[in-house]
Structure formats: structure tokens, C-alpha cells
Amino acid sequence: MEILCLQHVAFEGPARLETWLNSQGVTLRKVLVSEQELPDPSGRHAVIVMGGPMNIYQHRDHPWLLEEKRFLRACIDQGIPLLGVCLGAQLLADALGARVFQNTHREIGWLPVEPTPEIRRLFPSLAGAPTVLHWHGDTFELPQGAIRVAASEACPEQGFYLPGVCLGLQFHVESTPGSVRSLLAHCADELTAAPYVQSAAEIEAGLANTQFAPWEPLLRAILKV
Predict the structure, then answer these.
(1) β-strands 166-169, 159-162: how paired?
(2) Known catalytic residue: 172?
(3) Is-catalytic flag, 174?
(4) pTM for the whole thing?
(5) Domain count, the chain
(6) Contact in structure between 41 and 76 (CB atoms under 8 Å)
(7) Could you read off the pLDDT of 71-112 as tens digits, one per residue?
(8) Is 166 a catalytic residue?
(9) Domain limits at 110?
(10) Which of 86, 107, 134, 157 is catalytic?
């Protein structure tokens, strides 16, 4: 089985997602959208859309965003399941007609999210308030018909789930120590003092917070693995 993975920059890859999927017998075909042509979406088992430092509305600086948005809309129309992470989640929200905009607060670092009662009923593994890695300044409105996945103190929309259609997660569920250090190496200039922005030292100290198992049933549901 092969799943397509869209990357926007080389340093934000699927990380833990790839390790997990490989263990399930799944191969990832990775495409760097900013440099490579998007394939025909027809017949895909599923598509993963990763994060990136750009915003979804920066078409002048990143004209390939327009083609990617058309591609994602085609996937939705063809019933191809989609998983979006951070920028990927924002692109999915946009493809579903929801507004994407600058959040009141930037969130960068290890901060808890509170899964909603509805998502906990569907996925009991999401008990408590898991601590996850955030690295975003934008947010989105909940797409029509979607289930809210979680909220945080700084951002009420931490994810959305449309069963059989798509899952968008604002936070970095794919995090590993290596992927987090890669973000620190390339995006440290974003760590300016703010209420929900941690320092590089705090982020480095929190590497033990990487949690994947609680989210696995939700990921299985959308990716059908």
C-alpha cells in the first residue's frame, strides 16, 4: 500500500508518521510541492499534507499553493482521505470552504490540548490533556459538518475531523526529537517573546513530551491502515 505525502519544505517531513506507517506495511511517496509536480490524485489510497513556514494565502511568494489547493479539492471530490498537519490542516480547512486567518496568539512549544467530548467518545485513547508540539500563528474556522478535535488555551480550533473525508491537526503529531530539532534549526527566528511561545531551551527540554500512541486510533481511522 502507498500513501502520498506532500511536503512544503524539506525540513518538515512525516517523521514519526512515516516510521509508524512503514511498520504497518505502508510506503510513503514524498513530493516536495514547492519544487516537484503534483501527481494525478486519482486512485490514491490517502494523502498526507505536512506543515511549512509559509501561510496558505501567500500566493505571490509561493504560487504553487494555488495548484496544491486545486489538488486537495480534487482529492475531496474523489473521496480520497486526507490528513493535514499544521499548514496542511489549514490548507484542508481552506479546501473545505472554511476561513483561515491569523490567530490572536502564536503558539510555539509544548502545550496541552483538550480533546472534545465528542472526539473522546469516538476515540477513548484521547483521555486527559495531551501535551503536543505547536508551531503556528494562523488558525481556521471549523469546517461545516466537521467534528472539533481539540482546543487549547490560546487556540480553540486545534483540529477537525470529517469521518471518511479528512482529519486536520493544528499541532505536530509527527514530532520526534529529530524533527523538533530540525524546526529549531530552521525556524529559531520565530521564537520571539510572547505568552504562548517557548524558548529554544524550553522546547529542547520538552522533547520527552512526544506522544503518538493516543492519536494512533484517530490516524488509523482517516488513513485506513
Answers:
(1) antiparallel
(2) yes
(3) yes
(4) 0.97
(5) 1
(6) no
(7) 999 999 999 999 999 999 999 999 999 999 999 999 999 999
(8) no
(9) 2-223
(10) 86
